[in-house]
Amino acid sequence: MMLTRNTAKLLKVKNRLDPKQSIVGGTRYIKQMIKSVPKEVVGENRLKFALAAYNIGLSHIRDAQSLALEIGLNPNIWSDLKVVLPLLSQKKYYRDLKFGYARGEEPLKYVESIYNYRHILENELNAKHPQK
Question: For residue 34, which of 11, 56, 76, 87 sits 20 to 30 Å off, Cα-Cα?
Fold first, then answer.
């Protein structure tokens, strides 16, 4: 689940490199992220925001939402947040944000990779069990 040391400690995961502990801790963490996403973010957007927050931190997601609002985008839909997140690595944007610099491209790749993998699994499941 690629928990950082600080996140593992927060989640009371003793050994973040142990697969079982990592999966249990990562599952708890994504649940926390889903609950922490603002209630205005709904549907599939909610999961994508939570996954991005899992990767980059909820504070940076909130910064991105503020920036989206500032430049006239909807801060509660993923398609607009995708436009804003890369800007968090540009000084002219991050210098005025509460939490500063963030590697904004990374959560985009992270969310996209998870969704690509999800589609692979769904296609495989459908191929094995076409009536489901």
Answer: 87
